[in-house]
Amino acid sequence: MGLLGSLLFSPWAAADQAQAAQRLSELLEKAQTITGRFSQLTLDGGGTHLQETAGNLKLKRPGLFRWHTDPPLEQELVSNGKKIWLYDPDLEQVTTQAMDQRLTHTPALLLSGDVSQIAENFEISVNEGGNVVDFILKPKAKDTLFDSLRLSFRNGTINDMQLIDAVGQRTNILFFEVQMNQPLQDSEFDFVVPEGVDVIEG
Length: 202
Prior knowledge:
Blueprint: H1 2-9, H2 17-29, E1 33-43, E2 49-60, E3 64-69, E4 75-80, E5 83-88, E6 93-98, H3 109-112, H4 118-121, E7 122-129, E8 132-139, E9 148-154, E10 157-164, E11 170-180, E12 198-201
Parallel strand pairs: 6-12
Antiparallel strand pairs: 1-2, 1-11, 2-3, 3-4, 4-5, 5-6, 7-8, 8-9, 9-10, 10-11
């Protein structure tokens, strides 16, 4: 399994799946809406920095989210629960597609989607120490975007997440200035295509 595998999984091997899923669901359901900032760092399998970005996010259950990445790598990913828009201002292009409700294909849905599906989609282990709770989610399906995902909460609030894919690439997302259960209108998750922008239907 190697050192990383041992660090990730050995302490939690005995964790009860049902209890871990219930604990995670309780923490996620506490936040019907989330607003805040994020910083994202992507590393290749050898630990080399590939990309570093920051931005802001809005999430609302069920299935609504808006992730805006700041310039110079500006992008906006928006879902109204049925449709997803990916807007790239530099390319003057919007890609749209129907929402994929599979949690293993749309990691943002772990924070804003139907928590009842989590136990169906993942094997879950948990480690709790002090005011920090870490969950490791391993997809049960084969055709997924990632091999494992860690969700960490501090004092009951989402703190960070890490995705590791099949080739060892890691994406670390740190959340800060997080506020839960602020009023958000559904209309905030509809995307209006800017004039003159190309639209590509996915």
